[in-house]
Amino acid sequence: MSESNVERINFRRAEFLISAPTLAECPEDSGAEVAFAGRSNAGKSSAINALTDNGKLARTSKTPGRTQLINFFRLSEQQRLVDLPGYGYAKVARSMKDEWQRHLAFYLEQRHCLKGLVLLMDIRQPLKEFDLQMLSWATTSGLPTHILLTKADKLKNGPANNARFAVEKELKALELDRNVTVQIFSAPKRKGLDKLERQLNQWLSLADATEADDTELEGGDS
Q1: For residues 184 and 196, is the Cβ–Cβ distance under 8 A?
Q2: pLDDT digits over 27-77, tens only?
Q3: Which of 98, 107, 182 has the alpha carbon at shortest distance from 148?
């Protein structure tokens, strides 16, 4: 689909919908949604808040147990942003971490309306163990992934670009680069926000579903 045919979403209209502890309690699996995932210190909440221009939409709790919910934000009746639990929280028992890894894997592999994954990594510490696990799940599911190398304001342009090139090179070496794109991002500076919006507009477009429905109707009349 050409970029000119893609709906431009007003992300400022995002509003909290529901927090779900398990996939069974998520909203109906219809429409289109994009999930945000990342380590607890990757700046996930800051990115969502910058995207929606709402500093209070996605909140970070100091209590690990409160971060272990799948949070849904409504953009329209059929379009949603999803804030997945931050992983890497050190104070949570290993058994609980394992349980949430299973929930995350199930969500990424079984959620039909999930159109893409935004994976956030601190540009100074990319591709940690669980980042690679998330990429592996996404690859297994055929789920397109857009990596945000966050906190780019901590580096000058040269080192930041070198970090992006290094990530792309490692992904290719690990054969995890299929349907994966990488960009530099800074929430405080709003750097890369336009590129992120373009990607989300593409994923969240409902035109494909509408065209598919029209095709089925035409086929039924013949």
Answers
A1: no
A2: 999 999 999 999 888 999 999 999 999 988 987 544 444 456 889 999 999
A3: 182
Residues 108, 93: contact at Cβ < 8 Å?
A: no
Q: What is the CA radius of gyration of the chain?
A: 17
DSSP 43-84: -HHHHHHHHHT-TTSS---SSGGGG-SEEEEEEETTEEEEEP
3-state secondary structure at position 181: strand
- DSSP track, 82-151: EEPPPB--TTS-HHHHHHHHHHHHHHHHH-TTEEEEEEEEETTS-S-HHHHHHHHHHHHHT--EEEEEE-
pTM of the predicted model as reported, rounded to 2 decimal places: 0.88
Closest CA to 108 of 52, 21, 56, 37: 37
Q: Which residue has the tokens 């956030």?
A: 120
Sheet containing strand 180-184, strands side by side: 15-20, 70-76, 79-83, 32-38, 114-122, 145-150, 180-184
Residue 18 tokens, joined: 């529901």
For residues 205 and 6, give the distance between their C-alpha atoms in angstroms, rounded to a whole number. 6
Determine the Cα–Cα distance for residues 54 and 95; give it in Å rounded to an integer.
34
Helix (DSSP H) and strand (DSSP E) numbers for the chain? 6, 7
